[in-house]
Amino acid sequence: MISSPYNGTNGNIEVQKQQLLTAIVQAKQDGLGNEEIIENIREALPDVMVSYAETVLKQIDFRAKLSRQVIEFNLEFLFQVIYESVIAGTNDEEILSICAEHCTLNQYEFARYALEYIHLNRMPSQWEQNNVYHKMIEIVNISPIESLFEYIESIKNIYLKQIGYEVVQENLYNLFLINKETSYFTDLANKSRDKCIKNYCYRTAVLVARATGKPLDLKVTADGSIILKEPKYLDRNTGANEIATSQNLTMLQAGKLLVDTLEDFNINAKYVDAKNGPTFNRIRVKLGRGVSYKKVEDIGNDLVQQLGEELGLKFAPMVSVVPGGVVFDIPRLDRQFAYFRDHFTFDSEPDIHSVSIPGGVDVDGTYVEIPLYSDNVTHILGGGRTRGGKSQFEKAAILYLVRRYPPSVVRLALSDVKRVTFGKFDGLPHLVAPVARNAESTANLLDYLVEEMELRYQEFERHSSIETIAQYNMRFAPDFIMPRVICLIDECFDLLSDDNYCDRIETALMKLLAKAGGAGIHVLLYTQRPDKNVIDPLIRSNFPAKTAFVTTRPEDSCIILGDDKDKRAVYLLGYGDFLYKTTEVLRLQALYVADDEDPEYFQQLLLEAKNQNDPYTAWQSGLDFDEFVASLYGERNSKDIGKSKTTAVTKTKQSKTDFEGSFNFKVQLDEEARNSILNLHQKGYQLDEIVKAVFNLSRQDGRSYKKFRNVVEEFLNSLKGGGEDDI
Question: Is 359 within any annotated ligand binding site?
Answer without folding.
Answer: no
